[in-house]
Design goal:
Layout: H1 25-29, H2 42-48, E1 61-70, E2 74-84, E3 87-97, E4 100-103, H3 107-131, E5 133-136, E6 140-143, H4 147-160, H5 170-186, H6 200-215, E7 230-233, E8 236-239, H7 250-256
Antiparallel strand pairs: 1-2, 2-3, 3-4, 5-6, 7-8
Length: 257
Amino acid sequence: MAKENPLHISWHDTNFLPFLNGSNVLDYFSDKSNSFYDRTCNNEQVKMQRQSMDNLKNMVGTEYILLHVKEPILYVVRKQHRHSPEETTPLTDYYIIAGRVYQAPDLGNVFNSRLLSTVHHLQQAFDEANSFARYHPQKGYSWDFSSTKAVTEEKKEVKKEKPKEEPSSYFQRQRVDILLGELLRKFPVPQIAPEPNKPEEDKNSTSNKADANKNDPSKVTIKQEPVDEVVSNNNSTATVPNVQIKQEPSEKKMKMG
């Protein structure tokens, strides 16, 4: 059975995560369930003998040290082989991000990954270019890119489609309800006071007054007709109805006399 690539696996302990810091990260890494930890290392021997970790410099063999700390999220642990108190050879680096342990790739793996991705994309480009090549016995080789128009139009239509909106979570709804409650407490809704109801006695008194005014003849309003025009002749007055009188010219009056 082939051994699994350590670059494709990770390890973490959820019970230890809230207490992880720079002082206990090596204890976290040396957990027995961690597949990256070698139990035959000098760290395990020092721990079994309950000695100080400073004694690692006086030993020869494989050991783990804390290389870099960026609290509270990033820690780098190095696996190295110690030859003397001053001479060591790095073997593998491990980085811990948010409590999850990964093995850092070495330089050879990085080069291999970049070369493979480059060759893969170049092969795709050559295959796509070869699909547009056309050959005719008389004309020879030519290029036909008419099929790319339909592909580009389909891609545009896919981009225009809006992604479906996900419904809100319970946490979002709860926070919105809390904020709305605080706003209502700070800015209460003004209440409109109801109009006072008139007592029934006042209504009865006003209706009785209106009936009394109708029955009393002295308080009945009389409509007056317009006053007729008055014509004065020989110091005597006479009422003339509202009739238009056409006056004759003065010359005719003289002849009649």
